[in-house]
Amino acid sequence: MVTAHLVVAASEDAERQGVFTLDGFPFWIVYLAAFCLVMVRAGATYWLGRGVARGTVRTRAAELLTGDRATRVIDRIHRWGPPAVTFSFFTVGIQTVVNLAAGYLRMPFGRYLVALTFGSLIWAAIWTTVGTAVVWGAVLLFLEQPAVLAALAVLAAGLTVWLLLRRRSRHRTAAPQPDEV
What we know:
Blueprint: H1 2-17, H2 27-55, H3 60-64, H4 68-88, H5 94-104, H6 109-144, H7 146-174
């Protein structure tokens, strides 16, 4: 059996190198590489947002952001946005939007950099430990029991769809209907 041989080889390789290594590199090197990668990626997203803001100076969107209410919201984001940047690194997908918004709303770079550094430290820790273990586990599960992995993927997708539909129905029932106003 080729599959059984691959599972044994993968298991022996994981035992020899450790689950928190990448092709024999020690953990701290993998962690440092992940940290640098996310600092560059998220920082570039922030600067992209700043560029978009600069390019939309004379547009209707820019006019909307200069009103009293928008100015108050932007001031709150400048004050409370750094924790949002840091905590966004616990999520998948949302962190890109938060970093882009921080740049677009011109969050002061010093505050952003501190939040980005802490967020990157968190992200690198998550992905070089738990993330690596999940990937190794999925590979081993695929090699040994691909049907179980497929069933878990379908279950996760179904749960996601169910949660999104439930959320949407709650928003519909919470919003006042035109005849109620």
